[in-house]
């Protein structure tokens, strides 16, 4: 189901941003109190802002390499044009309520080393040459309220939904690993953590590959975090991730404590 957020519009600071020239590399995307903002890295000028959610939700954001901002919160995921702030599509994630949402996407292309031709020499002193293999379909994995939903990156259509059995209703986290024939991963896999459970899913189909329960300890908030060598390398370079900065999990826990104190 697609939602209409056009009545809120895009608010621009016409006194400054309308006169500025900028590229995607000049932009920093921020989200707070229901709004997504694009600001200029040079001086903090607001280039555009877009309302997407009520102020009670933490909004997760992700910028793709084809100029889309994926923003999610209050049980919905949105695709926003990076350069203009216009909403391209919205998916209300039917059945996921109004909780925080964690997001991750499959890459638009996978970088692979080129194979040496028979007449080429293997020079150990030269860096390998690479080619980018374009993916036929890019998938967004959005997680909330103990489940995961896959969304088509271009259309916003729901591709599959997986309700994590035994995972509870807390916000899950996910990592996507690229295919690797040598390691026995012929397809892209999504590892989803919810409660004390880990689920390995086919990122394209949502089919369960395996699942495991980790801890029987009933103490603690029950928020799980994930890491792998590959994802950690990427995170070390630029990324802020839920597993490193669990703001949404903290908000979920604070909300639960407030509700308990009010009863």
UniProtKB/TrEMBL annotation:
<feature type="region of interest" description="Disordered">
    <location>
        <begin position="243"/>
        <end position="263"/>
    </location>
</feature>
<dbReference type="InterPro" id="IPR018391">
    <property type="entry name" value="PQQ_b-propeller_rpt"/>
</dbReference>
<feature type="domain" description="Pyrrolo-quinoline quinone repeat">
    <location>
        <begin position="33"/>
        <end position="214"/>
    </location>
</feature>
<dbReference type="InterPro" id="IPR002372">
    <property type="entry name" value="PQQ_rpt_dom"/>
</dbReference>
<dbReference type="Pfam" id="PF13360">
    <property type="entry name" value="PQQ_2"/>
</dbReference>
<protein>
    <recommendedName>
        <fullName>Pyrrolo-quinoline quinone repeat domain-containing protein</fullName>
    </recommendedName>
</protein>
<feature type="compositionally biased region" description="Polar residues">
    <location>
        <begin position="243"/>
        <end position="256"/>
    </location>
</feature>
<dbReference type="InterPro" id="IPR015943">
    <property type="entry name" value="WD40/YVTN_repeat-like_dom_sf"/>
</dbReference>
<dbReference type="InterPro" id="IPR011047">
    <property type="entry name" value="Quinoprotein_ADH-like_sf"/>
</dbReference>
């Amino acid at each position: 189901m697609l939602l209409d957020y056009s009545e809120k519009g895009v608010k621009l600071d016409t006194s400054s941003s309308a006169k500025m020239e900028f590229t995607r590399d000049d932009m920093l995307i921020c989200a707070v109190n229901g709004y997504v903002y694009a600001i200029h890295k040079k001086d903090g000028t607001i280039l555009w802002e877009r309302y997407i959610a009520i102020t009670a939700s933490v909004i997760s954001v992700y910028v793709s390499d084809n100029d889309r901002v994926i923003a999610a919160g209050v049980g919905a995921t949105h695709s926003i044009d990076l350069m203009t702030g216009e909403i391209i599509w919205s998916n209300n994630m039917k059945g996921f309520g109004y909780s925080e949402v964690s997001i991750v996407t499959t890459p638009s292309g996978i970088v692979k080393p080129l194979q040496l031709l028979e007449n080429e020499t293997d020079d150990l002193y030269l860096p390998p040459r690479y080619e980018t293999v374009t993916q036929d379909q890019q998938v967004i994995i959005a997680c909330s309220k103990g489940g995961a939903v896959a969304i088509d990156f271009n259309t916003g259509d729901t591709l599959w939904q997986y309700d994590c059995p035994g995972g509870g209703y807390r916000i899950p986290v996910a990592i996507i690993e690229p295919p690797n024939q040598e390691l026995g991963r012929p397809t892209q896999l999504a590892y989803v953590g919810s409660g004390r459970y880990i689920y390995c899913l086919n990122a394209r189909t949502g089919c369960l590959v395996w699942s495991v329960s980790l801890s029987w300890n009933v103490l603690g908030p029950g928020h799980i975090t994930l890491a792998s060598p590959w994802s950690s390398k990427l995170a070390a370079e630029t990324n802020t991730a839920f597993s490193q900065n669990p703001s949404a999990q903290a908000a979920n826990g604070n909300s639960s404590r407030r509700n308990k104190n009010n009863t």
